[in-house]
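Troubleshooting: if your tokenizer reports a length mismatch, compare your output against this known-good record of 142 residues.
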Amino acid sequence: LLAEVGHSRFICGLRGYTQDASRLYFLLELCTAGDLRAALSHHMKSTASKAGRRGLALEVVRRVGAELTLALEHIHRHNVVYRDLKPENCLLTADGHVKLTDFGLARNLASGERTFTHAGTDAYMPPELLQHQGTGTGMDWW
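Known-good structure output:
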């Protein structure tokens, strides 16, 4: 599905792939600054001792939110639901931009179609999926 959705500035680009008898390997765009979870954790530790300073700067939050919004809008236009949005699946480039990665749980979902599969990370799942009501691309926004 990563190849199907094509290029987007905020999705980690697929450069190639290969396989051996038991595994499939992806060659992805280089993102040298780690993932968003590690960046958040590092930031919280480094600002813990500074009185009055908690969380990321507003301009950083706005940029990350906007970039993830553009990434999700792009894949949704290709009828793909991501199903596992979490900080660990958001890589960071050297200049601090977000790249969505790990399309292992993504799937095609026609307009109006719902998925009932319990896929993703429980802590980030929308209530309707946990209540077996199914969901569409809206689960990516939860």
